[in-house]
Write a structure and sequence with these properties.
Elements lengths: L1 H30 L6 E5 L6 H17 L3 E5 L6 H8 L7 E6 L19 E10 L1 E5 L8 H10 L5 E4 L5 H13 L4 E4 L3 H10 L4 E5 H9 L4 E5 L26 E8 L4 H15 L4 H6 L4 E2 L4 H22 L5
Parallel strand pairs: 1-2, 1-3, 6-7, 6-8
Antiparallel strand pairs: 3-10, 4-10, 4-11, 5-8, 5-9
Helix pairs in contact: 2-8, 5-10
Length: 328
Amino acid sequence: MQFTSKMNRRTVLSSAAAGLLLASTVAGAQASYPVKPVKIVVAFAPGGGSDFIARLLAVKLGEKLGQPVIVENRPGAGGNLGAELALKAPPDGYTLFLAAASYTVNPNIYKLSFDSVRDMTPIAQLARGPFIVAVNPKLPVNSLKELVDMARKQPGKLTYGSAGNGSIVHMVTEYFLDTTGIDVVHAAYKGTSPALTDTIAGHVQLVFGTVASTLPFIKSGQLKALAVTTPRRLAALPDVPTVMEAGYPSYQVTNWHGLIAPKGLPRDIQLKLNKAVNDALKASGMEAGMAQDGLTAAGGMPEEFGALLGSEVARWGALAKKRNIRAD
C-alpha cells in the first residue's frame, strides 16, 4: 500500500511538472511571437481594393512585428473561399484574414461552413470610406433628390448596376431603395468593371461605386457624382453632399476593411497584433496611400471591430430577408 502511494505521488508530480513545462513553453512561444513570417489571406484577386489595403498594410505591419508579412490571394465563391481557408487555420497568429464589408453580407445569403462572428478573433478595423452614388451624365438630374423624384414618377424605368446578386454594392443600393421607397431595376454583372462600363455607356443609369473604381470616371466627366454614403464628405469631392445631407438622415454605409484571425487566438497575441496594426496605420505613408483609394485609417481596439462585425451581419441579414436577396 505504501509503495503504491509513493508511485501515485510520483505520477502526480511528474504530470504536474510536464504540465508546467508545456505551459511555460506555450507562454514562451506567445511571448516571442512572431518567430516566422505572418500571412494575410485576401479573398479577392490581386489589384482590387482589398488587395491594395492588405499590401499597403503588410509592409508597415512587418516593420512593427519584426517579421515579413506576406499577402496570399485566395479568390472565389464571393470571398468565402479565402475566409474559410483563413479561419480554419491554427489560431497561432501566423494566418490572418483581410475582411471587407462583403464578409458581413455573405453569411446572410450563402450556406457557409463557418460562422462569420463566432469563428473568428477580431484584431482591428483598418480603413473606412464611402461608396459614391453616380449616374450617367446624360440623365437629367443634378441631385439625389432629383434622382429619387424621377424614380418615383417612373417606377421600374431606371436601372442600376452591381457586381452581382448578393455583392456589397447590390446590398448598399437595395438599402438605399428601401430607405427611399423607390423602384429601380437591378442589373447584375460579373464584377464592378462591367457595371461601371454600362453606366458610362448609358445602358444602366445608376451605380453605387467604390471611390477607387468610380472617382477616375467622375473626374473625367464620364460619370456624375450625386452623393457619398458616409456621414462625412469625401475630400476628393468636397462639393458632393452625403446621402444624409441630401435628405435621407437614416442612411449611411461605410466601405470598410479589417483584420481578423481564427477563433481561439491567445489574448496576448491578439493584443500584440492590435497594437502593431494601430502603430502601422499611423506610420509614414499610410494616410497618403489610403487616400488614393478614398479611404481613411480606422484602428481601435479588437472589441470595437468585433461589435462592428456583429452589427453589420445583423443589418444585412434583416435587409436580405426583407428584400428577398439571394446570391447567384
